[in-house]
Amino acid sequence: MSVKKINRTKTGVLRFVLLLFFLFFFGQPEQCSSKPAYITIALFALFAFIAGRFYVKPGEKNVIYDKRGKAVLLVSGFLFSSAVLLANYKMYIEMSVFLRSCIMFLLFCSSGVVFDSIFRFCYDLFSRSEIRTEKSSGKPAVWFISSFLLLSSFYLLIFFLCSYPAQICSDSLNQIKQVIYGDYSNHHPVYQTWLIGLFYKLGMSWFGEINAAVATYTVFQILFISAAYAFMISTFIKAGSKKLFAVFWLVWFLVTPCHIIFSFTLWKDSLYAAVVCFFTVTLFRIYKNTGGKIFNYILLFLSGAGFCLLRSNGLPAFILLVAIYAVICLISKKKEDRHIIICCIAALVTAVVLKYPVLKTMNIPQADTVEMLSIPVQQITRIAVEKDDFTDSEREVLEQIASVERLKEQYNPKVYDYARDVIRYEGDQTYISSHPVQCFGTWFTIVMRHPVIAAKAWIDQTSGYWNPSDYYWMKWWDGVCEEEGLYLKVNSPKADEIFHSYVGLFTSENSILTLSYNVGLHVWVIVFFAVYSVFQKRRDHIIALPVLTLVATLLIATLMHDEFRFGYPVYTCLPVIVFSCLGYKNAAGSEK
Fold first, then answer.
1. Would you give per-residue pLDDT tens digits along the chain (592 residues)?
2. Alpha-carbon distance 384 to 388, whole Å?
3. Lowest CB count within 10 Å: 73, 78, 266, 378, which one?
C-alpha cells in the first residue's frame, strides 16, 4: 500500500470518527439542544462521507480544489463551526476546564468536517445535474397566470373556510385601530397601515361591515403574495428552468403551512416578505438579462422603496445592501452594476424622504428609540443579573433610563419585550437619545468588563437566526383579537379541523417536518449555495445579499430570539437564490 493511500485512509478514519462524535453529541436525549435539524445534518454528512469514499467511481471523484477553493471551504467551515460552537455553549459551559476545552475542540473540528463532507458531496452531485437550459422552457405568461390562479385560489379557499376575515394579532389590531380612529404612528410601518386603510374603506363602502372591510384587505394581500410567487415561477421558466424544478417550488408554496397561513395573516411581515421576493427576483432578472429592462428597473425601484419602508429594519438593511453593491460596482465596472446601484440609491433616497420629512410634516411619530436597542439592553441586564457590579457613575446613567432592579425582574434571555416595556412605560427612553455618547460609553465599559456574559446574552437573543437547530416561535392564531366588532368566522368546521391537523404535523416537537420552518437551517442553506457560487468563481451569490442583509440587522437588533415571521423573507426568496446559484454552471454561463 502506497504512503499516499495510507495517509488517505488515516484521514478518512479521523473524519469518520469526528462525524460520529457530532452525531452522538447532538443525539443525547437529555440535551436540550438535541433537535431534528442537527441529527438530520449529522446523518446527511455521514451519508455524504460514505458515498464519497465508497460509491463514487474512480475518475468521477470531486475536482482537485485549488488554493482559492480550499480557502473558500476553510472560511465557510470555520463560520459553520463557530456558529455550532457558540449556539450550543450551554451543553459544555458547566463542565470542568479540561473537559470543556476537549469538547469545544472536538465540536469545532467535527462541525467543520460536517460542512466539508456535505459540500464535497453536493458539489459532485450538482456538477452532474442540470436544472436549466439556455432557452426558455415554456411560455412565461402562461406559467404566471396558471401559478397565480392556482396559488391565489388555494389560499383564498383556506382563508374563507377556516379563518375569515383574517388571522389578526395585537399588532394588526393596532393598525386597524389606527385606520378607524386616524391616530397614526410609524411604530408599525404607516405606509402599510395606509394600504390597509385604503382597502378597509373600500370594503366599508361596499359591504358596510368591519369584518368584510378587513377581509377586503386580506383578499388584496393574498393576491399580492400569490403574484410575487407566480412572478418568481414565470421568471424561472423565462430563464430556462426545467419544468420539474419550477413545479417543485410551486408545490412548495402550496403545501408549506407557513406560506398558506401567512397569506391571510394580517400583519406587515407577510406583505414585506412578498416585496423582498419581488426585489430579489427582479435583481436576478437584471443580472441574467431576463425580461424587459425598463420593466425590471421600474419594479426594482418600487420594490426597493418598499424594502425600506415596510419594516423597521428594512432601511438599515437596504443601506448595507447599497454599500455592498457600491463596492461591487467599483470592482466590476459592469453596466448592469452601475444601473442597479443608481436605481437602488434612487429608491433609498425616496424612502428616506417618505419616512422622515414627509411623516414629520404630517406629525406622525417614528418608532421608539428603545425598540432598536435590544442587544445593548439585554447585555446590560444579563450582566446585572449575573454580576451587578456597576460603578456609581454607571448605575447613575442606567437609573436615568430605567430601574436596574425592574430590568432584572423582567429579564428574559430570549425575549426583549419585557425589558423594553420597563423602559418604555416605567423609565425614560428620551435620556438615551439626548445623551447618546454617555449611554454608549456606559454600555461599552460594562461589556468590556464582562465580554463572556455579554456574548452569552447576544447568543441567547439572536441565535434563532443563525443556529441550524432550534425551536422557532411561530404564531398560529386560531381566531382574532375580538375588538371593534371583529370576530373569527369558521365557515367549514370540518375543513378547519383537517387544516389544523395538517399544520400540527409541522409543529409537533421533534417532528422531521419542523425542519420546514427552521429559520437558522434555511439561512445556512442560503449561505451554502452562496458559498457554492463563490467556489465556482461566479457572482450569483449577489442574489442572496438582500436576504442576508436583513438577517444581519436581526443580529444587531431583534426583539425575539427566534420568531419565525422576522425571518420569513428567507423563505420567500429561497427558490430564486437556489436557482441562481445552482442553475448556472460557470462564469461564462453566468454572464450570458
1. 555 565 667 788 899 999 999 999 988 765 544 568 898 999 999 999 998 877 654 444 444 467 888 888 999 999 999 999 999 999 899 899 999 999 999 999 999 999 999 998 998 888 888 888 878 878 999 999 999 999 999 999 999 999 999 998 888 899 999 999 999 999 999 999 999 999 999 999 999 999 999 999 999 999 999 999 999 999 999 999 999 999 999 999 999 999 999 999 988 999 999 999 999 999 999 999 998 999 999 999 999 999 999 999 999 999 999 999 999 888 877 888 889 999 999 999 999 999 999 999 999 999 888 989 999 999 999 999 999 899 999 999 999 999 999 999 999 999 999 999 999 999 999 999 899 999 999 999 999 999 999 999 999 999 999 998 766 666 555 667 778 889 889 999 999 999 999 988 887 776 788 888 889 999 999 999 999 999 888 889 999 999 999 999 999 999 888 888 999 999 999 999 999 999 887 654 444 4
2. 4
3. 78
**Domain tally for the chain?**
1
> Which domain range does residue 22 map to?
3-128
What's the pTM value of the predicted model, to 2 decimals?
0.94
Distance in angstroms (rounded) separating the CA atoms of residues 59 and 241: 29
What's the CA gap between 122 and 136, in Å, rounded?
26
In a domain, 25, yes or no: yes
- Please, are residues 58 and 127 in contact by the beta-carbon 8 Å criterion? no
How far apart, in whole angstroms, are the C-alpha atoms of residue 590 and residue 239? 11
Could you tell me if residue 403 is inside a domain? no
Number of other CB atoms surrounding residue 391 within 10 Å: 12
Kindly report the number of other CB atoms within 10 A of residue 481's CB atom. 18
What cell was used for 186?
410609524
